[in-house]
Structure formats: C-alpha cells, structure tokens
Fold:
Amino acid sequence: MEEHPNVDLMRRGYAAFGAGDMAAVGELFADDIAWHTTGVGPLSGDYQGKEAVFGFFGELLQTGTLRQDIHDIVANDEHAVVLVKGHSERPDGRALDENQIHVWHVRDGKAVEFWGYGADPVASDAFWS
Structure:
C-alpha cells in the first residue's frame, strides 16, 4: 500500500533536520507555522512564524545536540503523528533519551502547526535548563 503524502512530508522534514539542512526544512513549513513546545523550561513556549521557529532551533542546538529516530508515522490529509526516540547531549556530558510524540497539522503540503510531547517532561525541562 502506498504511504500517504504527509508521511513522505514528515520523513523528508526529519531527514533534512537531522542533516542540518534548514533550507529544506523551511521549504516544508508554512510561513506562519505555529510551534508549541510543552514544559516550563527556558525553551518551552509558543513560537509563531518561520523566523521565530528557526530562532528556537538555533537556541536548542546551541544548548546541546539532538538526534531523532523515527519509530512510526501516521498521517491523513490534515494531520501527521510522528513517534520519535529523541537523544540529546549537553557539552557537560548530561544526556537525555526520551520517547516523544510530535503532532503536526498539515495544509496544502506544508506543516502549519507543531505540538511536541515528551514522555518525561520533568527530566526534559531539567536537561534543557
């Protein structure tokens, strides 16, 4: 059975992010993308528009490394859910391994909204703080 086009959109986006190809990531985002990062840490919050989201990415990647391994993707015409195993490391040697759920809203072949949920928000907030 052929995969839904939004599964391909997600695979391309995660591969581009993992390769550091932010130009390719930007092509997959709507200009007015809304980004929601749960938690109470300094990087948690809502970001509106590509510029704000890429600013968040910059802060995130200055804080530590991030690798995301896709476990599965489920998608339809309006949504995609990506099950991810995230692995992050800080320069001081601290590491975080966390199962995550990423919920995407998709319109006209572009990601328009993102919600990220981690299995251990307390550990995640402590790691990114």
User: Anything to note?
Assistant: The beta strands are 29-37, 45-48, 65-75, 79-89, 95-107, 110-118. The chain is about 35% helix and 45% strand. The two ends are 44 Å apart (CA to CA).
